[in-house]
Amino acid sequence: MTGRRWVLAAAGGWIILSAPALAMTGALLLNAPLSVREAGMGQVSVGSTDVLRTWSNPALLAGQSTRGAVQMTGGSLFGGDLDGLGVGAGWLVNQSWAVGALAVTYTSRMAEVNANGDEIGTSLDRGLTAGGVVAAWRGSWLRAGVLVKGVSDNLAGDRATTGAADVGATGRWGEVGVAVAARNLGPGLRPAQGDVEAQMLPAEARLGLAYRLMRLRALVGAEYVQPFDFGYRAGLGAEWWYMNRLGLRAGAQRNQDGRFQVSAGFSVVYGRVSLDYAAVTNVIGLNHRMSFSYGFGRSAAEMAVAPPAPEATPQPAPAPAVTPAIRINVAVSELTPQGVSASDAAVIADMVRNDLVSKPAFNVVEKANMDKVLAEQAFQQTGCTSAECAVKLGKLLNVKLMVVGSFGKLMDAYVLSLRAVDVETGRIVFSDQAQQLSSQREVATAVRAMVEKFANTVR
């Protein structure tokens, strides 16, 4: 390829590239975001999660809300002269680990020119393909991940390949989230031809900061990117959700060459299916990106429930335990789902019942018996969160205390709210709420803490 030059057709002019520049140009596409949501927020990845955001920070894979998730994205860049396609999949192995795979390909057509810059009537295709596997770990407030990938750059049959790795971590304290990552760490693209010098990958370091406005159902974030060669990039973005069904986002970014671009996009969510769109300005025109994602399997909330213990060999009955002379009759209503499925809310209600059973101060009405009584009375318990409704429900079940509440999701965080009402007086004797629950473990911990606090309050 030495001595030959090609031009990338572009609206309003031509971009002439030599062979070494072509190799680097292909590698630079590794820094383009795969996530449409990220692109619509000014390329800010911190603060939210979807499978393709893992391309910018592998720790983000641990934040998915369903056991499995798949996502596909496609679009045209630079006025349609460059087409891109990306796919990703993630799987929650357990409450602490997630694994996944990502792949992306870009294709473009270039016209060959002579030394004067005139087209000579021939053209060639250019392609960049990259993909790899990712593993992520998550704890109560910290997540970490690593992505190992291969990269192949093909120009008119001349191929250059290499391997690389990305590492990242995210943390959250209250409503503030922070993320760091180092990307494209590895040797340069090494062509098959021995006379062509290897081109370094566009390695970079990223630092992001996000803040959630829970009451407004909004998120604002900023991200700084420091490439290892020259310049810097910086982005600022925000998104707002309406009942977890419609998301709107916008952002702005400063590129390495000092130019600014703006972006906007939206998401439409139906059940576990999501359609995302983003438009990003550039010097040529608009980049249009769309993605489709689907979550499947158990939700993160359902995975928080411990599996039933295996049946043990019958043992002689132990001596009766000393219990309070008077137990309090209590029942737990179905929790109202807010942005989650009814089955997710039902799982959390079962967790509350199970923890209450372990407290010697309570007699807990079994769910099967409760459903039978309410079915006979044609009483609809879903949506029963007010004290007045709790009193009516408690009288039907003949209990002293009625526990009601809600379980919901705001963007990527779960919110659990519980209240206990004295059926005789209608007075709320206990009320508590847990926010910013990001994992199955945090949900289960919050349930146990609330039940313990409730038991101590009414003792």
Structure write-up:
It is a single chain. The chain has 459 residues and is an alpha+beta fold. Helix content is 16%, strand content 50%. The chain is built from 7 helices and 23 strands. Helix 4 crosses helix 7. The protein is elongated.
Can you lay out the helices and strands and say which pair or pack?
Blueprint: E1 5-10, E2 13-18, H1 19-28, H2 36-40, E3 66-77, E4 82-92, E5 97-113, E6 119-138, E7 142-155, E8 158-173, E9 176-185, E10 190-191, E11 204-213, E12 218-227, E13 233-242, E14 246-254, E15 260-270, E16 273-281, E17 286-299, H3 300-303, E18 328-332, E19 336-338, H4 342-357, E20 362-364, H5 367-376, H6 387-397, E21 401-410, E22 413-422, E23 428-437, H7 440-458
Parallel strand pairs: 18-20, 18-21, 19-21
Antiparallel strand pairs: 1-2, 1-5, 3-4, 3-17, 4-5, 5-6, 6-7, 7-8, 8-9, 8-10, 9-11, 11-12, 12-13, 13-14, 14-15, 15-16, 16-17, 21-22, 22-23
Helix pairs in contact: 4-7
Q: In which order are the strands of the major sheet placed?
A: 3-4-5-6-7-8-9-11-12-13-14-15-16-17
Taken in chain order, the helices and strands follow as: EEHHEEEEEEEEEEEEEEEHEEHEHHEEEH
Taking Cα atoms only, what radius of gyration do you get, to the nearest Å?
28 Å
Overall 3D form: elongated
Beta-strand fraction estimate: over 45%
Tally of DSSP β-strands: 23
Helix content: 10-25%
